[in-house]
Specification:
27% helix; Tetrahydropterin Synthase, Chain A; homohexamer; 5-stranded mixed sheet; 136 residues; alpha+beta
């Protein structure tokens, strides 16, 4: 059985890569390349999978919340992804790279019995990114 | 091709297990252990899978509705999951156990040509449970 | 300027009035009269009105949250409206009566500079109740 | 990594098949068989899958939009599916057949590096159809 | 106290007025002028207003549903607004004119104690039309 | 009759006022005071009011879109409200002040026959701000 729990955070970013010229960056990233950045209300869905235990729970809600809050939300909520977040320091802060960084943070020494099954993040309701829960 | 159809029902429940002390129940289930119960507006998504027939339909909508209504909605809607629902009589009425009971009710002598592919139930929009359509 | 802030709580209830016979209660309230109750995920929108202060705020978010939490959410969330809530003790727990009780709790000694403009509560997304902020 | 992008279009249709009598058509398709048609606001979710490139993108948004717009939206938006759409000319315009036609249009000479992973279309929020991205 | 109840129906239409040339119609109504029509999933919110009665109800849900179903939904659901609906026979079937026709149908000999306060109709979630409940 | 049309834009901001100390700013604005800013997906609902013209329209959609796009969206979408937007240059970029600036931009030399009735902006679905259409 899979349980998906939903979290939210708000952050800002600016898309640009030093490998490209100013003009090429503008072409590639469009308005997301505007110099002073912009922001989004991200929706994060974390899915865990396992059999319900004898108390009828796949996972204790507070235990999962604690993992997601300490590893993800506390690092990202109300932050600037270009300058505030060590895990994003060396990559363009696209939502693709953000999704990868979130999965990496979650799967390292994953502490729960239910396995991490999927990470899904929405930038807006028009752009939704999904990664299977483990890259290994 | 998969077709997912959405249904809704409202029910109440209280989470507690006789295997634990009062204090342990309160620790484990939090506010869901409050003595007189509380309730939710559950959303149930039933997915069937198959090839469209010569009339262009994976399943006749009314046939699927009839199965879901008689086996699930009529048993659960506006009910108390702790005392009103035989299928839940021996388990803690977590949404995990509710999802399992719904799938069991649906898959027994499943009467449609399209196969039952998935049962998904949302307690609130923050907690969504999914089961593949058949436990066999 | 009006600011509406959204809150949520889950509760259970059973609709019945001693003034009517069993049969009349069933006729009037339908499935909501089922003997062991059912429940909902209520959405509560509280609107305050005023001019933004010199810091650009109609109301400090935390101050409003504190009023709503202590007076409303703490009394209602994960409760049974028939037996757990003193403010509902003498009335049928319809959402109409619940909306009135919420407004009464909020407007008594309202402690904020921004005035209470509207209370709106949704039982489901099909039934939404609105009251102007003050009955006086 | 999967990226799902959401599109919308409005169209009308009437469900009827010449293989059935008038009465049988009415039985099978119900109100959808009403003679002068009706309509929907369809939601189309197109999912592509691949590794992010060196610029952090699974797919350039504009390139995907261009494919979906020219092959799907321009053919369907504000159209009558029974008479306006060559790809639907020989089939009953059920949403099952519409989903198949959309996938066929997209997968033929698919021009992007990210692979077409899934096509999902909602007729209303109660009826959602999904097809894996390639029929091959 | 106001109670808003939500209903849905699907219909098709084509926008064109005989007072204008073909070219002018195309200019004015854009894609909505496409010759064979298109359609929408309309959302209708009907608001009534009054004091709760001794049973705690502003209006009996079934009584309101019965009025809306017989006067509005049965006339419009799965219909073509240009040819199927007498109340729309002499006007361009814009959602403005549809909203007016719905209010007219509802307010004539309004049979409930709670007064008709507002009619709101959404063509899509981008276009929402509101009329106070009575034109008198 | 009122017509509300919905628009969206994404922007970033940081809340701080020079009138307060660093510590007071942190107390007052909380996480919104984080030094490098964060962002939101704002939803803007613009309501106009008038009688439908002989073509059945309260307002031509494209004319309204053109006003909102040129005066509001082009200034704000994918921008940093602290440094990119002249209309916000002298105020703390709270959503209250943003709502006022948007209304001011719209109402100055309002060019449409339908009158500007209301401006509503959502920062997230928990915080919604409303202003009557004209401050005069």
């Amino acid at each position: 059985m899979k349980l998906t729990r939903r979290y939210r955070f708000s952050a800002s970013h600016r898309l640009a890569t030093p490998a490209l010229s100013e003009e090429e960056n503008r072409q590639l990233y469009g308005k997301c390349n505007n110099p002073f950045g912009h922001g989004h209300d991200y929706v994060l869905d974390v899915t865990v999978e396992g059999a319900p235990d004898k108390n009828g729970l796949v996972v204790e809600r507070h235990a999962l919340d604690q993992v997601v809050r300490s590893r993800v939300l506390d690092q990202l909520d109300h932050r600037n992804l270009n300058v505030d977040v060590p895990a994003m320091a060396k990559v363009v802060p696209t939502t693709e790279n953000l999704a990868s960084a979130i999965r990496t943070s979650l799967e390292r020494d994953w502490p729960l019995a239910a396995r991490l099954s999927r990470v899904r993040i929405s930038e807006t309701d028009r752009n939704i990114f999904e990664l299977e829960g483990s890259s290994r």
